[in-house]
Amino acid sequence: MAKLIGNAPNQVPTNADLGSMAFEDRTNYITKNNPVHQPFRNIIINGDMSIAQRGTSVSGITGVGYNTADRWLFSVGALGTWTQSQSTDVPSNQGFAKSLKIDCTTAKASPDASNYALMQSRFEGQNLQYLKKGTASAESLTLSFWVKSNKTGTYICEIDDADNSRNINKSYTINSANTWEKKEITFAGDTTGAFTNDNNLSMNVIWWLGAGSNYTSGTLNNAWESTTNANRAVGQVNLADSTSNEWYITGVQLEAGTTASDFEFLPYDVNLRRCQRYYQTLGFGNIAMAEAGSTYVMNLPHIQTMRSVPSKGLNISSNLRVRQFGISDRDASSPSVTSSTGSNAGSYIKVSGFASIGSASTPAGIGYTTSSENGDAFKLDAEL
Does residue 337 form part of some domain? Predict the structure, then answer.
């Protein structure tokens, strides 16, 4: 129905007003058939690669780990050596400032059967319930992203159901070398196997970069099925076959439905807080309580409630400082964590290596920092 506008906010239109009736433009309204503007429609966290709390470049990668861009797990199974970095090489005029770059530094032209290299993004089951997986109303998913590589050819994307050991795989093609290309892939909904409604791993989205025959010798499963490794990466090029090879990705979006909408840009602070649910670093704290010997107990309120009770460690190898009441600051040139406890909202960490603390009656510190006072001393990890 049209919205009728009178002569003032509290008036209804008169007959004289009807000739100038104002109609609302409903083009951008959210409806079942027009969900384009629904907030947080992108299941991917940090799809624009703008957050990199751990650092911007890591070299010598031969295993599994979160290295640079938050929420992006790089897994290497004896297929080459790699450098991963946050890059400023991005598609022109698309609004992106960062991309994720994978660079082969030690090649392996002929993969062994069990070898693989892949990038993945992981998700909690409780955030996926609206997809209605395992029901007759299961939602399709559409994946869109920008990708660039000197290595042209066929690549494989996979959605993996970790709860029920099921997956579906689709191919995409990098057509032109060293050229940003946008890809859109739609995966059918799965009517078998619901995602568990908890904070544990339920789904992975995987970009294969290379694989041995254990993953390529079957028939690519374009429909949901129980996981058969041989059917997961059929046709995949080997990005590890030359040290000249590199692969970039940004603008990654995964959403319910069969149509890819424009990338959902979030404010930097919102994107950062979403990442800090899984990983955060802390540079300053509230209270550092002295214990006898060389140990302080650090109180660390978390910046963001984390997914689970995090693992805790030092983000530095030297020069941890405790600021003291009325006496000199105390430094640990080689600090080490001796024990830790806490919840998903806050942590207590015992750190040794401080000289001349004396007894537990030593005044409490007013906080901790690095001795240069410009770094993040602790790291908390609750990744999937």
Answer: yes
- Supply the Cα-derived Rg of the chain in whole angstroms: 26
Q: What is the pLDDT of residues 294-319, one digit of tens each?
A: 888 888 899 999 999 999 999 988 88
Residues 6 or more apart whose CB falls under 8 angstroms from that of 208 comprise 116, 117, 118, 155, 156, 157, 158, 215, 232, 233, 236
Residue range 140-167: mean pLDDT, rounded: 98
End-to-end CA distance of the chain: give it in Å, rounded.
Answer: 48
pLDDT of 247 higher than 80:
yes
Question: From its phi and psi, is residue 244 left (phi > 0), alpha (psi between -120 and 50) or beta?
Answer: alpha
Expressed as residue numbers, the domain containing 255 is: 57-275
Token pair in block for residue 378: 């602790």
With helix as H, strand as E and coil as C, how does 327-376 read? CCCEEECCCEEEEEEECCCEEEEEEECCCCCECCCCCCEEEEEECCCCCC
Report whether pLDDT(23) > 70. no
The more confidently predicted of residues 248 and 325 is 248
Least confident of 230-239, 262-271, 369-378: 369-378
How buried is residue 196: exposed, middle or buried, by Cβ count under 10 Å (0-12/13-18/19+)? middle
Same domain, 214 and 363: no
Structural domains in the chain (count): 2
Q: What DSSP string runs through 61-76?
A: E-SEEE-SSTT-EEEE
Q: What is the pLDDT of residues 36-77, one digit of tens each?
A: 458 999 999 999 999 999 999 999 999 999 999 999 999 999
Edge-to-edge strand ranges of the sheet holding 330-332: 330-332, 320-324, 365-370, 288-290, 295-301, 346-352, 336-342
Predicted structure pTM score? 0.89
Could you tell me which residues come within 8 angstroms of residue 383 by beta carbon, excluding any fewer than 6 positions away? 66, 73, 122, 278, 279, 307
Distances (CA, A) of 16 to 8, 24, 353: 14, 20, 84
Residue 29 lies in a domain: no
Q: How far is CA 26 from the centre of its chain?
A: 34
Q: Which two tokens stand for residue 39?
A: 């907030």
